[in-house]
Structure formats: C-alpha cells, structure tokens
Write the structure tokens for this entry.
Amino acid sequence: MTAAFPFVGGRVTLNFVSTLGKRSTEKLERLRTPEDLAHWVELAGLGSISTDEADLKAARVLREALYTLTMATLNRGPLRRADVNLVNEWAARETPAPALAIGRTQVRATPLRRRDPQPTASEVLAALARDGIELLSGPDAGSIRECEDPGCTLLFVDTSRSHRRRWCSMNSCGARAKMRTLRSTQ
C-alpha cells in the first residue's frame, strides 16, 4: 500500500524532502519501493518515469542531502561539504527543459516538460537538485519553515502576508494544535 504524499511545501524540493515524514519520532518512509518513487514523481507533476532499486536508493540519498542542507539553511544543522557536492553533481546532469502552459487565467511554467513525455529517473532527480539549489540560494530561503507541530517535521515556504505561518497545513497540524489549545482551556 502506497503512503499518502503531502504536498504542502510550496516547492517541489520541500515536497520531495517530505517523502520521509515524522523525522523526530518514528520516521515515516513514504518511498518504500521504486513504484512509490514513480508514483510521487507523477503526483508532483514531473512526468511518468520507470524506476528501479538503484533509482530509489539514489533518490533517498539526494533527499537526505537536500534535507540536511535545508536544515543548515535554517541554522538547525551542520553544513556538510559532501551534501553540497552531491546536490551539485546531480544538478549538473541533464534535465528536461521547463515549458509554458496556458492555465485558466494566465501562463504558468510546468517543470520537466519536453517532447519526450517520459523523462528518466536521473533527469527528475537532477531537476530536483536544481530546484533545491534555486530554493536554498534564492529569495525564498529565508521563508522556509518547519511545521510547529511537535510530531510533524514537514517543511514549507511561508508565503503568508505576515510571514508568521506556523503549520504545514491548517487542515491537519493547525487544526490539531487548535483542538489541543481548546481542550487545555476547558
């Protein structure tokens, strides 16, 4: 059975990092099989790929490097040269080119589109590494947050007007926190 994938990060890199959840407690691995990886790629809108055990292993290693670098960006972990080198190596690989698509009211970018409708797993991982570089070195780096729910470790880009967003999702962690607060006052 495939685990549910959260897509609350606001960036594909943070959604990818969230394929390992509850990092501070029981570590919920959502990429258990190559098929899980292929399913996540499709749900993320990155195309349809074929994967094998080597792709799964590579994806997990890249995911953890991106997570460690994100936590270092938040001053909550060490900055390791090996992680920087790994992400840079992946980002240097070939990726499908982004393209424009017509949305309901505007033109929008669609990642990883090209004439060949089926990118390789390596191309998808390269694109994830590039997005991670753009995120961690760009203007959104200062807006990355970790959910304040003690059992949740999902990361997200805070795009709220006040930049005071606390929860990965008000429908899950935010609602639970409000219920805890309500119960503690009764």
Observations:
- The domain at 12-184 is CATH 1.10.3300.10 (Jann2411-like fold).
- The chain has a mean pLDDT of 87.
- Helices lie at 12-17, 34-43, 53-73, 81-91, 121-137, 170-184.
